[in-house]
Amino acid sequence: MKRSAPFGLSLFLPSFCPFFLALTGDFRYKGSACGGLKGTVDFVRVCLLASGSRGNATLIEADGCRLLIDAGLSAREIDRRLREIDLSADDLDALLITHEHHDHVNGIGPLARRHQIPVYIAPQTAAAIPRLGKIADLYHITAGESFVLGGLEIASFSTTHDAVDPVGFVIDSSEGRIGYATDLGYATRLVTDRLEGSRVLVVEANHDEQMLLDGPYPWSLKQRIQSRHGHLSNRATASLLQQLLWDGLEAVFLAHMSDENNDPQLVRQEIEQVLTGSQICQPQIYLGQQAKVSHCFFATRPEPVSKELSGQ
């Protein structure tokens, strides 16, 4: 049944940041309860189950809710990877879909039907997925609007990619903000504004510009990747990160890295240049992988930023 959403590789840098919260004071949002965890659960966990051109899926856990952003692997493989971190697909409370490309939606239908998981997706995106099949709880979302799920407020925002209605997400919880934006050819002002104040970021670092030019892809595909509707280069990702650094940013996941047109060492070099030149404490950096689950970020509730510390 189609419904409108209710509105309302490994770690390579240490973190020396204190636990800060993007907003001062305690805040919670009213909404339907999540079924995964009971009671008050004051921690946040983020794991890239898979990241790359052959399949993407990201687990986000906060305020007792367990969300999966994109389902680009088979339902069986997603369940298998969740079990590697002591969960299963039955523990998921919702699927959030960014766009219709196969590496982001391959398992959405079977996963949702087999485990009775609600799906939140833009209507144009749902219509563009071939053989999606019937999903009992299908909620239509609109870029720029927000909805409530348990203790979370989830807002989507438009991104630039060669899809019908691509979006990123920001998820606000009592443990801080989680920002998610991959598959974007250009980091617009809107993207930067929405991701500001995140405690955890998931952004793409798809390719090294020279490796892409020298690589085996046909010229038309190279042009598509480096266009404003393609994918972010390492350099563009570093520039975006430079704008998003603040004392409360504790973890950055670098996602959707190309096997053919990127190298972990080149990504490290670009990001380290940004962090070395910053006067702000360094977040933990995680590299997503295609073949296995990334290291997970796990932390308890941060202390609110006092007015004295924040300079207000």
Q: Could you state the order of secondary-structure elements as H and E?
A: EEEEEHEHHEHEEEEEHEHHHEHEEEH
Question: Which range best describes the helical content: under 10%, 10-25%, 25-40%, 40-55%, 55-70% or over 70%?
Answer: 10-25%
CATH architecture: 4-Layer Sandwich
The CATH superfamily is Ribonuclease Z/Hydroxyacylglutathione hydrolase-like
Strand element count: 17
Question: How many domains in all?
Answer: 1
Overall, the morphology is: globular
Mean pLDDT, all residues? 86
* Rounded Rg: 18 Å
The name CATH uses for the topology is Metallo-beta-lactamase, Chain A
- Separation, N- and C-terminal Cα atoms: 47 Å
The DSSP helix count reads: 10
Which stretches of 5+ consecutive residues score pLDDT under 50? 6-32, 36-40, 306-312
Major beta-sheet overview: 8 strands, mixed
Class from helix and strand fractions: alpha/beta
β-sheet strand percentage: 15-25%
Strand order of the largest sheet: 1-8-7-6-5-4-3-16
Kindly provide the name of the CATH class: Alpha Beta
Topology:
Layout: E1 2-4, E2 20-21, E3 43-50, E4 57-62, E5 65-69, H1 75-84, E6 94-96, H2 102-105, H3 108-115, E7 119-121, H4 123-128, E8 138-140, E9 146-149, E10 152-158, E11 167-173, E12 176-181, H5 189-195, E13 200-204, H6 209-214, H7 219-225, H8 234-244, E14 251-255, H9 264-276, E15 284-287, E16 297-300, E17 303-304, H10 307-310
Parallel strand pairs: 1-8, 2-17, 5-6, 6-7, 7-8, 12-13, 13-14, 14-15
Antiparallel strand pairs: 3-4, 3-16, 4-5, 9-10, 10-11, 11-12
Helix pairs in contact: 8-9
